[in-house]
Amino acid sequence: MSFREFKEHVKKSVEIAIGEADYPLIDYELFEPPRPEFGDLSANVAFMIANKLGLNPLEVAEAIGDKLRIPEDSLIADFEVHEPGYINFKVRYPDLAYRSILDAISKEDYGSLNIGKGKKVCVEHTSVNPNKALHIGHVRNLVLGDSIYRVLKFTGHDVQILNYIDDSGSQIADIVVGFKYAGFPLEPPDGKKFDHYCGDHVYVKVNELYAKKPELIMKQKEVLKAMEEGKSDIADFAKELTKRILKEQLKTCWRIGAYYDCLNFESHIIEAKIWDRLFNLMKDKGIVQFVKEGELSGCWVIKMEGEDKEKVLKRSDGTLTYIAKDIPYAAWKIGLIEDPFQYDIFIKQPNGKDLWSSVSGKGKDEHPSFGNSDLAITVIDVRQSRLQKIISYILSLLGGKSEKKYLHLSYEVVSLSKKTADELGITIEKKEFIHMSGRKGIYMNADDVLDALHKKAYEETKKRNPDESEEWHHNIAEKVAISALRFDLIKQDLDKMIVFDLSEALNLEGETGPYVQYAHARASSIIQKAGIIPIITLDGASLLNDPIERELVKMISKFDLYVEEAVKNLSPKTLARYAYQLATDFNAFYERKPVLQEKDETKREARIALVHAFRNVVKTAFNLLGIETPDRI
């Protein structure tokens, strides 16, 4: 049994009583009252009915209450009508505590729901241009996408993770120009990671040189043309360069805990000529129009419903706009075209999983099936919202009555605080923050942030556990560092811009990932010292009746409700905040209620079981956020 079942029992009893009282069924809310003396759930149905029929809410509530009956097997203990018209319900607490604790201890998939029922979903995230290292803004994309993947998989969806590699853009050409024509050595002179070297030094410096040496801009155009044609030493060099940088980027992704199923290269999408087929289909269906006069003369455009301004897909010179290049990939994701790609294994990932990629030429005969998903989720920041809206609109017209969907999951960008900018030597004058720019060199690399967090966590861990080995200290420090970073980026509202401050990120206390990890470690210590298999009985559960114990039990029993909310809203922050509140409730219980020192054996065993249930649930919740929970910190 869980809190969900209690809600279902309340809803069923209320709706039967509404019918017997001769009132119409109407939408209403069940919510938790602000004060415990009002019970565990409250229904506002009387207000909704009274408002529709012009009646007194209290009289309606009393009439419904007169017809309310509680079945013997119900989780409802009691109810009462409360002025000015609420109907308040109390849960049969011992049964809720007994079943929730028992299930949380015995079921590995406690909290999971088969919402997906095998529905095929692809999630595209990360998709960083392969000319630089991941910066902290990219990590927000990564941890959101990875957490959504984990939650969807936990709830019965068939999920694949895609990473789009733009290997044909000007950013790659800039790096090629740097190495081939601007005299930059191919190997980092200071031993840096290759992606850091390319992004921090070569890419930034080349863009500065364009203003001083216009001839390099001509070289960039030559490189772009060679890359587009695909058959030259320069094109081969660009491909090898892309792969080398990409492999370094993947090391950072793996370090943060994100893995992928397939890499899709833009050059292969171009080679497959998907656009040509889709463009002809769009013309046949009248989705695009040719402009014969005016400033857009010679262009192919699409007009969105409710908008006056057309969006150009194909310019008058025959070149495609940014959005036109994205349409074929989006259409492939939801199966509006047959899969035109060949695939091969790109690399074996540290978790043992093969990472596949699209390839030129012949690939492997046997490979997983990619694309053709029922739902495609594309994680891109809010600046791309309009373009993504247009893509979704075009796909809806191409797909006709198809129920397959394309969804853009947007989020606000990550900026740097003034203090952090000052530390980087970036002057922002009177501003409180500054937006990041790879071209201008305004950013913080993800590896550098993790290294700083690791160093701080290492110092704290060594202080707490002086007798452990260096290997142990670094292993725990890395888990704490990743927890601090992932949790901080996940817990925020998607529509809220994050102003990243390195000093605040290094704070390992408060509403942070390490705070929750410490609570888990504390619970693990209790269980280890107890040295028994946790036992919970109905009699024992009835003894966990202190308000602090009741709150912890109720939070454990609500886990699946939070999982469901996270899936429905595609919002990992729901689980981050749940885990934090669960840890807070546990710490309050730990501080005020003895566990191992409790003299009553039945109550002691019940409390040990409660600790065990908490540990399992918080571990699962954090796993869904891609965060490990070590038993000792």
Structure description:
Strands 11-12-7-6-5-13-14 form a seven-stranded mixed sheet. It has a four-stranded antiparallel sheet with strand order 1-2-4-3. A three-stranded antiparallel sheet has the order 8-9-10. It is globular and about 85 Å long. Among the domains are: 3-91, 2-Layer Sandwich (Gyrase A, domain 2); 97-115 and 509-624, Isoleucyl-tRNA Synthetase, Domain 1 (Orthogonal Bundle); 416-505, no CATH class. Helix 4 (93-106) packs across helix 23 (601-624) and helix 21 packs antiparallel against helix 22 (573-592). The chain has helices at 3-20, 45-53, 57-67, 93-106, 136-154, 170-180, 194-212, 215-229, 233-256, 266-271, 274-284, 322-333, 385-399, 418-423, 446-464, 470-490, 502-505, 513-530, 538-542, 547-557, 559-568, 573-592, 601-624, and strands at 30-31, 41-43, 76-82, 86-91, 120-124, 158-165, 262-265, 289-290, 300-302, 311-314, 342-348, 354-359, 375-379, 405-409, 414-417, 433-435, 498-500. The longest helix has 24 residues, at 233-256. The protein is α/β, with parallel strands linked by helices. The protein has 23 helices and 17 strands.
